[in-house]
């Protein structure tokens, strides 16, 4: 399998998704997420050693994540990290850009229904590659996957999808901390680790903040103004204030016609109504 073949498989699976729609908002024909951008990184890239120091020793290397499904000694050399970036639709972004206190209904639903959608997408992808005799691991399908506390960086995860996207050439971080891609910052991500000789993508940047206007020339800063709790400042992003706001908006502004159920929440007002909403600015 080469990169083009993998991208074709991913697009076919995207087209077959049953859960990628706004049925909850009575718009079954409207997709929740656009086709993903795909990037590929090497499984033995020394960047993963850096992440163990930078984020914490709990952050998996690709080989460690792979071994959770396929136990045994293993080097990362034969592995590739496939990073997938799903952009929000323009309709969702326009709705979100109008909001000031509470995320738009489309944002609430596309966040709340992400996990079942990713189960469907990743499940189909892993099955398809498995049928071709290719071993692979979807990070989102690992039962061990979850959050952890980084000493230096606060709330974190055993696998940071964004850092792998950065490594796979898909974008750099913004002042808000969100990753800015060619399709902008209003995106969600997942990662697949495959045992296949895919070509590793080159990175069109040399530093981790290169595509953000604030780090480029001190301009912009619009994401700071979009945050209702001032969790984004020139010093960066306060993860705890940001995290706490989720329950605040849910308690104060939850739309009556959406059932909260087991939705995980996310404010995301800093991801829309900004120059990096849809593109690398
Ligand atoms: C924990 C978490 C949160 C926490 C903390 C956020 C955070 N920044 O870590 C809270 C609850 C606050 C949160 C909020 C949100 N989240 Co969140 N969250 C996660 C989660 C589970 C883990 C993130 C993680 O591990 N962070 C680890 C630390 C290391 O990251 P960091 O501090 O941001 O990294 C900085 C440093 O590494 C530094 N850096 C990078 N390279 C280098 C190199 C050197 C040398 C140095 C010194 C520094 C440096 O720059 C980075 C950015 O500032 C991921 C899912 C996943 N498993 O990946 C989703 C994820 C990051 N969240 C996501 C989203 C969409 C959101 C929200 C928009 C909510 C929503 N759904 O609407 C908000 C946005 C907040 C914001 N301003 O970015 C998306 C990312 C979207 C994007 N464009 O980046 C992810 C990837 C989920 C997904 N599956 O797509 N989130
Ligand atoms: S809104 Fe402006 S300052 Fe904020 S991340 Fe995007 S480009 Fe950077
Ligand atoms: S997600 Fe909301 S609370 Fe968190 S930084 Fe962005 S705008 Fe602020």
Keywords, separated by commas or semicolons:
281 residues, two-stranded antiparallel sheet, 10 helices, binds cobalamin, 35% helix, alpha+beta
Q: Termini, distance in Å?
A: 34 Å
Structural class: alpha+beta
Bin the strand percentage: 15-25%
**Secondary-structure element order, N to C:** HEHHEHHHEEEHEEEHHEEH
Total DSSP E strands: 10
Shape: globular
Spatial strand order of the main sheet = 1-2-8-3
DSSP helix count?
10
Small ligands present: cobalamin, iron/sulfur cluster
Mean pLDDT metric: 96
> What gyration radius follows from the Cα positions, in whole Å?
18 Å
Low-confidence stretches: none
Biggest sheet, open or closed, and with what strands and sense? 4 strands, antiparallel
Q: Name the helicity range.
A: 25-40%
Question: What is the count of structural domains?
Answer: 1
